[in-house]
Design brief:
alpha/beta, 60s Ribosomal Protein L30, Chain: A, Alpha/beta knot, 2 domains
Length: about 270
Amino acid sequence: MSKRSDRQEGGRPARALRGRAGRMKNGRGSGRASSGMVRVWGRHAVEAALNNPNRSHRKLWATREAVESLGGELPADFPVEWAQPVDLARLVARDAPHQGLVLECEPLDDLFLADVLDGDPARPLVVLDQVTDPHNVGAIMRSAKAFDACAIVTQDRHAPPESGVLAKSASGALETLPWIRVVNLARALDEIAEAGYWRLGLDGEGEATLADALPAGPVALVLGVEGEGMRHNILQHCDAIARLPISHEMESLNVSNAAAIALYAAAMRQTV
């Protein structure tokens, strides 16, 4: 890994970061990348992006200590600008834990639903209806990857864009879990059914519990946003509706928690 001094020749301090970051009011950034780019931060998110052969990188801003903590060495010609933590804070969303690493890169290429529908009963598919909070989507990605889901499916206009907040919440899963963004979620559910998946929606009004409703074969777990749940049309495109057996004193669970429980239950069932 190439070494660069944090100070210019003659002992003068290195210049502060240039461009948008240096002009932010009160030294805070918006977390927005250059036009058409995605900016990710945090060790797990950045390291996963650097190790993703399908990701094109533009530039890395980092502290020396953070780069040395990465699992491998950067190529000698990799575009790195050494920075202090206060400078990096200008490049990310307010109070975001950048951990000394901020990477600007191109968005991931679009994927197709047909490419991930392998029909493996041991690998559930996660379908999200109108879950727009990037923290929730990122956390669901992390759980989906942990329990070996084959992919996550969202509707393009009712889902967050690829971002640093989502990548940080996903803790590296954004780079390794296929994320399918579709125009029409109901049509996607039809395609999922044609591929042999049992479409199991999670809703507090379901008569059966999740454990009783899970099939032995391929399953698509369909979840809606907390509170409103799934839209009526999406409910109609599910083969069955199940509920989590939570206390009657609690109305609902956060969707990322519900997804983690559902993925665990799917992993523990007997498959064929």
